[in-house]
Amino acid sequence: MNLNVIGNGFDLYHGLPSSYYYFGCYLIKNDPEFYEEIGKMYELNHLKMVGPAIAHDYDYVVENIFWSDFEKHLSKVDEYFVVDTSADDLDLEYPDPVEIKLEHDKNADQLKKKFAKWVRDTLDLELNYPLIKERLLNSSDLDLSNEDYFLQFNYTHSLQKLYGIEDDKIYYVHGECLGDDGGELIVGHGNDSRIQEIKAVIEKLDEKYDFTQSSYNRINEYRCLLSYIHKLRKDVEGCKMGCSYFYDVIEGEVEYINLYGLSLGEVDIPYLVQIRHRWPNAKWTFSYYSELSKGRINDVAKNSLNLDEGEYGMFKFAHTLSRDVCSEIISIRDIDEYPSV
C-alpha cells in the first residue's frame, strides 16, 4: 500500500493553469484596484509604462519573483507602507488615542476569499476534467488506485474526477474547494520568525510608552501589521493534527511514500517529517520536473528525513501534452494572460 503526497505540480502535469501567476492575472482582470493595492503593499512591479512618459499610460504586469512563490512572500509585506498608511487611518491629528479596524486587515480576508474564488472559477471547473481525460490521460502512464491513500496539498478534485479516487481515501491538508464561495481554503506563509520580529518591535514600543497619542498610535500601527501577517499565516501544527487523524484510519503498513509535484518548500518539510516518523520503514520516491530539482530532493531526503540512499528514489514527472492542454483550457475559459516581469 502507498501513501501518495500530491502537490501543485500534479495539477500542472494535468494541464490545469494552477501556477500563482494565473492568480495574479485573475486579480488584474476581476479586481484591478485590489491588485494595485496588493502591489503597493508588497512593493511589486505591478504597472509598466507604455508610450511616452508624458502620456502617463500604464499596462498591468505580473512580477514573477513574487507570484512564482506567492504564499512564501505573503509575510514580506512592506512594513513602512502598512505602518504609514495605518497612521493615516488612525488619524494622528486626532487629540486622543484611537482604535480602528484598518483596511489592511480587510485586505488579508479579501485575499483569501479571492483566492478561493479563483480556484473554484478557474481550476476546479467541472468542464476542465473531460478535456484533460480526452487529451492527456490516454497517453499518461500514471497509475493511481483506490487501494492507496492520498495526502492532497491542492484544493481541486483532480484525483476524484480523473482517476476515480474515493473521497475517504483523500485528506485535504489545506482545505477542499467546495460551495459557491470556493470553501474555506488555507492559504498563507510559514514565516513565524517574521511574526516574532514584529512582536519584539511592539514589546520595545510598549517599554517606551509615554501615554501620549503618538506613542499609543505607533504601537497600534505595528499591531495592525502583526494582525495582517498573522491572518495570512498557515497553522502548520493545526494542519499536522488533521493529518494525524487521517493517518489513524489507514489500515495496514505503508510500503511506499510517493511524492507527486511537491515543491519541497520549507513549509512542506514538517509534514514530511511527520510521515517519516509515522512509517519509518517505508521507502520514498520523489518526483522531479527538471534536473535542477534533484539537488533539493537529495538535501531534503538526507538532511531533513534522514533517508539513506537505498531508502529513496526519484522519477521524472512531466507530460509532453501538459502545455497544450493548459493552453486549450486558457483559451476556452477566456483566461487573460499579462506580461511577466
Secondary-structure map with pairings?
Blueprint: E1 2-6, H1 8-13, H2 20-30, H3 32-41, E2 47-50, E3 57-60, H4 64-67, H5 70-73, H6 79-90, H7 103-123, H8 128-135, E4 149-152, H9 158-163, E5 170-172, H10 192-207, H11 213-231, H12 236-248, E6 256-260, H13 269-278, E7 283-288, H14 293-304, E8 312-316, H15 322-332
InterPro entries: AbiH
Pfam family, one: AbiH
Overview of this structure, please?
The chain is an alpha/beta fold. It is 48% helix and 11% strand. The strands form two sheets. It has a six-stranded parallel β-sheet. Strands 2-3 form a two-stranded antiparallel sheet. α6 crosses α11, α7 packs parallel to α11 and α12 packs parallel to α13 (269-278). The longest helix has 21 residues, at 103-123. The mean pLDDT is 90.
Features:
6-stranded parallel sheet, two-stranded antiparallel sheet, 8 strands, 48% helix, single chain, globular, alpha/beta, 15 helices, AbiH, 341 residues
Q: Termini separation (Å)?
A: 44 Å
Proportion of residues in helical segments: 40-55%
Radius of gyration, taken over Cα atoms and rounded to an integer in Å: 23 Å
Overall average residue pLDDT: 90
Summarize the structure.
This protein is of the alpha/beta class and 341 residues long. The protein has helices spanning 8-13, 20-30, 32-41, 64-67, 70-73, 79-90, 103-123, 128-135, 158-163, 192-207, 213-231, 236-248, 269-278, 293-304, 322-332, and strands at residues 2-6, 47-50, 57-60, 149-152, 170-172, 256-260, 283-288, 312-316. Strand 2 and strand 3 form a beta hairpin.
